[in-house]
Amino acid sequence: MYRSAPTTPQYKATARAGSNIAFIKYWGVADPRLNLPLNNSISMTLGALHSTTTVEWDTAGRLSADQITIDGERAEGKKAERVTQHLDLIRHLAGDRRFRARVVSRNNFPMASGIASSASAFAALTMAACAALNLNYDRTRLSAIARRGSGSASRSLFGGYVEWERGADDASSIARQLFPPDYWTLRDVVAIISTTEKAVSSQSGHMLAMSSPLNAGRIDSLYSALQEVRTALALRDLTRLGPIIEQDALAMHAVMMTSRPSLLYWQPGTLEVLHAVRRWREEDGFPVYFTIDAGPNVHLICEAAFERELLKRLQTLNNVRSVVTSGPGDGAEIIDQHLF
Ligand code: DP6
């Protein structure tokens, strides 16, 4: 019988992960070292907006430092440091701190589009880096590891509608799927107002949440808000989901604005979209609701059947520079096509 020769381990893997949009936001960190959040959050993983990342561990000792390329450019400074820190954690888990890595990552959306890339980036990085070291962790464990790199990345390990449990320690702060992607074909239509990189990263913003007098009020209200979102998702009821996600986006921005120092992510165009959405609902019951991350762009949530009409309406607004859309997608996955 012919037997193929055993292949030498490659120490190389590629993963793809979608970004996600939170319906109940993660804002505020309880433990900065472990990246434990102040509250549970719920999101939809985005199928059309993803990061692909190849990691190769240099077992021959050729590299003296990790070599990181993002969207064709060598990452330097803080950006590179954040990736290296995450790789340090994974090196630690593998019990081998020597290997440096070559990392190449590509987003299928422009980094400067204002769409969160840390969620998809750290989910893909975690899955690829662990697979390349033959660390056979399940999604739950991978979500806990991804969380250390970026909180929202913990949710992108799973597809569809996902809840990240705040948890009490490293092992219990994990995400889980509430409903698969095909359970409900919602759309996230992102009205891009500005593409300039934000002055204050979410990473630093999370540290400020507790300095706002409104933070405790928001956190107290979330127990029932989270339950309402779970129920609205279970019933596929946008008229129930919409108001609650708008309220939490506004509550989060109220916390941001009243932090010390104050964070003000909105631009005039942000308000233009918010007013238009309310007007459309009042005038002819057009079923669309908004949410906003740590930036000026507005994510509009609607049923798939209303997407075309929404795109038409957005064209009538003065400050919407472009639009990007996505439906729900799968969780992070290993793929065969390496980037190098
Ligand atoms: C407003 O996950 O980007 O998008 O852990 O520092 O990477 P880091 O923060 P990040 O924060 C997300 C903030 C948010 C809300 C959300 O997605 O839940």
Give the helix/strand layout.
Blueprint: E1 12-24, E2 29-31, E3 36-37, E4 41-58, E5 67-70, E6 73-74, H1 77-94, E7 100-107, H2 118-132, H3 139-149, H4 153-156, E8 161-164, E9 175-179, E10 186-192, H5 202-208, H6 215-235, H7 238-257, H8 268-284, E11 289-291, E12 298-303, H9 307-314, E13 322-326, E14 333-335
Parallel strand pairs: 5-7
Antiparallel strand pairs: 1-4, 1-14, 2-3, 4-7, 4-8, 5-6, 8-9, 10-12, 10-13, 11-12
Helix pairs in contact: 1-2, 1-3, 2-3, 6-7
The protein binds ligand DP6.
Q: Give the distinct bound molecules.
A: ligand DP6
Order of helices and strands: EEEEEEHEHHHEEEHHHHEEHEE
Q: If helices are DSSP runs of H or I spanning 4 or more residues, what is the number of helices?
A: 9
Q: Assembly state here?
A: single chain
- What's the number of domains? 1
Could you describe the 3D structure shown?
- The chain has 340 residues and is α+β, with helices and mostly antiparallel strands.
- The protein has a single domain, classed as Ribosomal Protein S5, domain 2 (2-Layer Sandwich).
- It has nine helices and 14 strands.
- Strands 1, 4, 5, 6, 7, 8, 9 and 14 form an eight-stranded mixed beta sheet that branches.
- Strand 11 and strand 12 form a beta hairpin.
- The longest helix has 21 residues.
- The radius of gyration is 20 Å and the shape is globular.
- The N terminus is likely disordered.
- Bound molecules: ligand DP6.
- The site of ligand DP6 has 17 residues, from helix 2 and helix 5.
